[in-house]
Amino acid sequence: MAPHSTPRTSRRVAVLGGNRIPFARSNGKYAKASNQDMLTATVDGLVARYGLAGERLGEVVAGAVLKHSRDFNLTRETVLGTRLDPRTPAYDIQQACGTGLEAAILVANKIAVGQVDAGIAGGVDSASDAPIAVSEGLRQTLLAANRARSAVDRAKALAGLRPGHLLPAIPENVEPRTGLSMGEHMALTAAQWGITREAQDELAAASHQKLAAAYDRGFFDDLVTPYLGVSRDTNLRPDSSVEKLSTLKPVFGKGDGATMTAGNSTPLTDGASAVLLASEDWAAEHRLTPLAWFVDAETAAVDYVHGEEGLLMAPAYAVPRLLARNGLSLQDFDFYEIHEAFAATVLTTLKAWEDPDFCKARLGLDGPLGSIDRSKLNVNGSSLAAGHPFAATGGRIVASLAKQLNEAGGGRGLISICAAGGQGVVAILEA
Amino acid sequence: MSDLFTKLVTSPVAKKVGVPQPTRLRRYEPGLPLCEGPVLVAGGGRFADGIASWLASVGVATVSTPGDAGEKVGAVLLDLSAAVDPAELDQLRLLGAPAVKALGRNGRVVVIGTDPQSLSDVAEVTTQRALEGAVRSIGKELRAGATANLVLAQGDAHDGVRSAVEFLLSGRSAYVDGQVVRVNEATSGETDPLRPLAGKVAVVTGAARGIGAEIARVLARDGAAVVAGDVPGAGDALAAVANEVKGTALQLDVTAEDAGRRIVEHASSRHGGLDIVVHNAGITRDKLFVNMDEDRWRTVLEVNLRSILRMNEAILGDGGLADGGRIVCVASIAGIAGNRGQTNYGASKAGVIGLVSALSRQVADRGITVNAVAPGFIETEMTARIPFATREIGRRMNSLEQGGHPKDVAETIAWLAQPGAAAVTGQVVRVCGQSLLGA
To answer: How many angstroms separate the CA of residue B311 from the nearest CA in chain A?
Structure first.
């Protein structure tokens, strides 16, 4: 019998850079762009930035949350339309808003164990070019007609059609198990944690101001490639202020206590992002300088269905597990990238980590994780300003944080992204 | 790029009724012969023999007199570099006239002289300066895509003359007509004629579209690794160009303080060095002088001129452009002749000519050459937007009676970037089909 081969040791995984198209509010500039169009443009932009035309990569992993059935092989079809070597394999994943970061984790892990040397992780979403399905009644009728063996049987099957069947099924931003929208879920959690309207508006205004400043100083010159005449995220309001935001009416939550507005919640957005990950050797061979190292990641889920925990609270659970595994405290970071699904999501997460009872009862810790230096939070703006094309947010954050760490001359960054279905994906980058 | 008018005037009907037809110019493609037909070499100057034996070595037939049976020659090469007395100018007529008569379509007339600036004897300077007037006039008489150009040698070294002659005979110089190219005594090694820029790293600014994109393509075709730069707002078109030439895209505003440093950093970290810089990025903001506002004036001068001065500091600094490197700027006919509504643009492009002349002397000891090309009427998206009548006049008012292609500008730049063009520096080569403007 042949001897067992020895497992390879783990390799460091470099984040070499990223690319995204500017994010656009839905039914706007990208209304007619498909997921495949946007992802292709994004990957081609990455290929151009890093000189990868004709290069065969280990794999390209990406996904979309809102996906047409025809896009069953979205990422592979995208690769075939790019300047990458068509012999580059690809596959789709989907983990709601965690898709982009989870894609990066998958590629990073393959690189770490030596299964691939380099890969692209990405994500794309269009809330404009959304898949519309036929109603369940019409679908069943059509399937029955298709199964029918004679013209008479087919006619009988089609005779079952009712006018109501003709209404299309449009995708909804609703949790299937609770019937509540994500915003309504978040409003419950925000109320439970006593997150004020002012705090949310402050966070939102800061997000816009920081993103605008980052654009102005050229931070995105090598992170963003224009698309369809758009060069900056269309949701960005550089002159956003707490005063302006305070005039908006709440859209989620009930009664006087409602705090969540269109201003402190992310809008539906279209866009795509991609990140280039590789082993150190591959990077050196291709004369590419690692911006940061993809250190570790963790995914958690909570039981929000039975009301035990808030829908978007899973990152609060994932982070302490990640910290423990890496022997770090919450304060051992130079930058924090907490995805702003809603301003309240960020604030609730931070408050939970400061809360001794929550940390003890829910996280099983001896004491609170504590507070963070807020000046290190989302330093170049986040989803409230940029927008949030679901699967594209992970790639946006990984690339931006890696560049920020590189610019700072080193340091450690934490990424935290909440996702539908009560999930949370978190990761650590170092430079 | 062909509009309805061009289609009409080049239609068979128009041809029949006698509308003058522009000749389809012979343009360079790798592997095509240097010129169509044998080269008539005459004149007896100090370069003729060397050029003739070089032509033989690259498989081009040479003759010393036109054939009897009305055979066409591909080019006429007259070496009058030894002429020291105006009486000797008669040689030009004696040897040249029958030769030019035998010149085929897309033929070439190249006269080699001695640069009057390197001479002091009055009769000698007079004689050599006279060549320029004759050659420019020949250019205006030639038809069917043929061109006439003058190479002025500053010494006895052959390398520069050979490089200039090769360029002027080839399809690379399709739209270069009535020009004077001065070559100094710098020597250069052998290069692969099919990939003269192999192993070189080139940066092209303004590479997202038009002439810049074509420069990127031609430099890549000639073997260079290309960094395609353009403003972040043009990033999508830029990415397409960079991917097409298998280069890298660099989204960069040339007016940014750190633009030069970023170019150097990108080229050296990603491609291992920097050998060629093409300052192509440029804009127009036209307005009559009396109505010219501060914004239009400043923006044009900032993008077209001051940014180049600033970037050059980093490019010519430590760890920047390699010794033997090349800087090529894109000037304009407007910088030579001036143009209505373009005081700002004309100033910026004339400034570029001054820059090239001064900087070339400053970096000569490092083997770096600094040159400019000055495009005339080039068929681009930009010129397609010029009002019809103005466009048609611009297009026709030159010896070749047609607009040039972006490729023509790019080919000239690629030649100036070649190692073989080491002897050409401080020059402005017009790619204008011998435009009547600024003549």
So the answer is: 17
- CB-CB contact of B308 with B352 (8 Å): yes
pLDDT at B382 over 80: no
SS3 B316: coil
Q: Which of residues 335-354 of A touch B (CB under 8 A)?
A: none
What is the pTM assigned to this prediction? 0.88
pLDDT value at position A148?
Answer: 84
**Who's near B44: CB < 8 A, 6+ residues apart?**
B79, B82
Boundary of a domain, candidates B130, B151, B183: B183
Rounded Cα distance between B307 and B255, Å, is 5
**C-alpha distance from residue A350 to each of A6, A109, A325 (Å):** 43, 28, 20
Mention every residue, 6+ apart, whose C-beta is less than 8 A from residue A363: A316, A317, A320, A369
Burial (CB count within 10 angstroms: exposed 0-12, middle 13-18, buried 19+), residue B84: middle
Closest partner CB to B246 (pick from A49, A54, A227): A54
- CA angle A50–A52–A54, rounded 5-degree value: 165
Q: Residue B116's closest CA among B140, B83, B94, B91?
A: B83
Calpha distance A102→B244 (Å, rounded): 31
Q: Is A65:A74 a contact under the CB 8 Å cutoff?
A: no
Per the CB < 8 Å rule, is B242 touching A222? no
B338/B35 Cα distance (integer angstroms): 34
pLDDT for residue A397: 98
**Is B117 found in the same domain as B212?**
no
Average the pLDDT over B45-50 and give the result.
90
Q: Which of residues 184 through 243 in chain B touch A, CB cutoff 8 A?
A: 228, 232-236, 238-240, 242-243
Task: Indicate yes or no: CB of B249 within 8 angstroms of CB of A288.
Answer: no
Query: From the CA of A41, how many Å to the nearest CA of chain B?
Result: 8
pLDDT digits (tens, 9 = 90+) for A304-335: 888 788 889 999 999 999 999 999 999 999 99
A359 is catalytic: no
- Estimate the crossing angle of helix B294-301 against helix B343-362, to 10 degrees: 30
Residue B298 lies in a domain: yes
Chain-chain contact of B232 with A83 (C-beta, under 8 angstroms): no
User: What is the tens place of the pLDDT at every residue in A87-115?
Assistant: 999 999 999 999 999 999 999 999 999 99
The whole-angstrom separation of Cα A26 and Cα A173 is: 14
| Helix, strand, or coil (residue B111) | strand
CATH of the domain at B139: 3.40.50.720
d(CA B274, CA A336): 38
10 Å Cβ neighbour count for B86? 12
Domain of A322?
A: 182-218+295-430
- Residues of B in Cβ contact (< 8 Å) with A289: 269
Contact (CB, 8 A) for A39 and A273: no
Same-domain status, B127 and B224 = no
Inspect the interface and report whether the beta carbons of B270 and A51 lie closer than 8 Å.
yes
Dist. CA A213–CA A30, nearest whole Å: 24
Q: Which residues of A touch B253 (CB under 8 A)?
A: 218, 221
B268 close contact with A: CB closer than 8 A: no
What positions of B carry a catalytic annotation?
345
- Specify the pairing of strand B276-279 against strand B248-251: unpaired
Question: Tens digits of per-residue pLDDT, A392-423?
Answer: 999 999 999 999 999 999 999 999 999 998 99
Pair B162, B185: CB distance under 8 Å: no
Say which CATH number the domain at A381 has. Answer: 3.40.47.10
Residue with tokens 């944690």: A193
Count Cβ neighbours within 10 Å for each residue of A129-138 and write b for 16 or more, e otherwise: bbbeeeeeeb
- Which positions ≥6 away from B110 have C-beta within 8 Å? B75, B76, B77, B78, B148, B149, B150, B151, B165, B168, B169
Q: B71 and B45, same structural domain?
A: yes
Q: Which amino acid is at B172?
A: R
Residue with tokens 């002289």: B113
